[in-house]
Amino acid sequence: MDNQRNLILAIVLSALVLLGWSTISSKYFPVANQPSIKIVDGKSVAITPANTPAPTTAPVVQDRAKVIAATARVNIRSPKLAGTINLTGARIDDLVLSTYQETLDKNSPPIRLLAPQGGADAYYAGFGWTGEGLSAPGPATVWQADNTELTPTKPVTLRWNNSTGQQFLLKFSVDANYMFTVEQNVANTGTEPVIARSFAYIARDGKSKDPDVWTDHVGPLGVFNRAANYRVNWKTLDEGGQAGTRFTSPGGWLGFGDKYWLTALAPAGTGSIDAGFRAAGTVYQADFTNPAATVIPGKAQSTTTHFFAGAKEVSTLDGYETALSIPLFGKAIDWGWFEIVEKPIFHYLHWLWGLVGNFGLAIMLLTLTVRGLMFPVAQRQFASMAGMRVVQPKMKAIQERYKDDKPRQQQEIMALYKAEKVNPLAGCLPIFLQIPIFYALYKVLVLTIEMRHQPFVLWIHDLSAPDPLTPVNLFGLLPFTPPHAIAIGVLPILVGVTQYMQFKLNPTPMDAAQAQVFKFMPWILVFVMAPFAAGLQLYWMTSNTLTILQQKWLYSRHPGLKALPADTK
């Protein structure tokens, strides 16, 4: 087995991993937790409890600034968040992420995550109660606030009294990152007991603008019964409508994820909740309800909910798993089945970035580390390949001698391998090792916000996006943007060039058809790599360059690898 066959195997296996894994995993490795269902007329349908708030269709869209100005509000100020709480309905419906911009332009506005109902792209969170014998606040209820501003050091309490002897409190606090904590309290000052169920919900008008693909789940997601659930998607909600998809779970969390942003509700503690997702027209809702509690006269009942609204930063999400005991909160990032490889690569890459201050250099150092760790394996691979080329004439002789006796032929070939101390599979090992590393880096660059808008040098201002500079429009001199299919950047071209140089170092294949294939393969690779993130293209180009240097040195150590066997000259 020679180096060309190894490369073909690498490309085939990479394609299988990138294109076929989701089909295999969804068929043979389904998510353990399934939605709660019941059977009606022989069909399974979602269970829909009557005690959760129903999503409502959006009203006519108005100017967002006018909608915000039309109601009394409490300001939100934190190191990473800015916005307001609407005192009508007690909704968090106006929020921007202060440390993230929409584009690379220096005057770009910050990312807007939440927006009020009635304006464009409505997206908000609300908290309330349902119950029996209870006059509960609703979307039109106007609350009274004890403060005009919510900060990490200054909580805000909203109050509302009904006409039947119950007082409702909502105490909001926010930390230095993206987590709100909302304490819901109902006190019964009346003469009769009441039954109260607290709930929380997130509603958004419209689907995410980010695509929901098998490598990166976008849309409804959550953790129920300590299992991450990515199986519910926009199509599921469109089909389920108001009935939706429901789960009964001891604690957990649920919400909506975009590529880089997340909103999520997590009840404090591990008490049983009824949770799930529903839709009404273009409005999608994630909600949960706590168990009913009887509040006798003179007593109060309270529940606490954590509400996350912010960026999917790896350390921040993982930190809440410990700090707030939110189970598997880091699963808001769809790491997939290769998390065991992706997380270490992410943390090492992040450490290198902090060390050198340039993310592109960090990727190159990561590549150097990977190649260095695999160098002993590569040495054994080359030695094995040299040995295989030496025994090729003997193999052909055996194949000719026993061409009508395949079992004997295989037996003699295996005896030859053993006598010559060669292993035909040794050359494949580096390929199998590189595939998960390459795929893991791909996922890290695609999924993690830490890589967003990170520059390298010159024209490369965002390593998480494809290389924008292309000769198709003479590197921007011609006033048109080429179609995506032919917008081949400089980095993927360099990938093809270095791949071609790597092939040229290898011995000429004895098979003429195989030789022709390898003439075209580097240039096909240019088009394959073009849509990938520039950081991944940089990794591949750097890896090719290091492989060229490595091959030159190893060929000097194993000259028999390039020399053709005597009887093939």
Structure described in brief:
This protein has helices at 3-28, 64-69, 234-240, 314-323, 339-356, 359-401, 406-420, 429-447, 490-505, 512-529, 534-557, and strands at residues 37-40, 43-46, 73-77, 81-86, 91-101, 110-114, 123-132, 144-145, 149-150, 156-161, 166-174, 179-188, 194-205, 219-224, 227-229, 245-250, 253-257, 261-267, 272-280, 283-289, 293-295, 300-311.
Q: What is the topology, as strand order, of the major beta sheet?
A: 8-10-11-12-22-18-17-14-15
Overall SS class: alpha+beta
Average pLDDT taken over every residue: 83
Distance between the termini: 19 Å
Bulk shape: elongated
List the total number of helices. Answer: 11
Poorly predicted ranges (pLDDT <50, ≥5 residues)? 1-50
Major sheet characteristics = 9 strands, antiparallel
Could you estimate the helical fraction of the residues in percent?
25-40%
Q: Strand fraction band?
A: 25-35%
Count of β-strands: 22
Rg over CA atoms: 30 Å
Can you offer a commentary on this structure?
The chain has 569 residues and is α+β, with helices and mostly antiparallel strands. The protein contains eleven helices and 22 strands. α6 (359-401) runs antiparallel to α8 (429-447) and α9 (490-505) packs parallel to α11 (534-557).
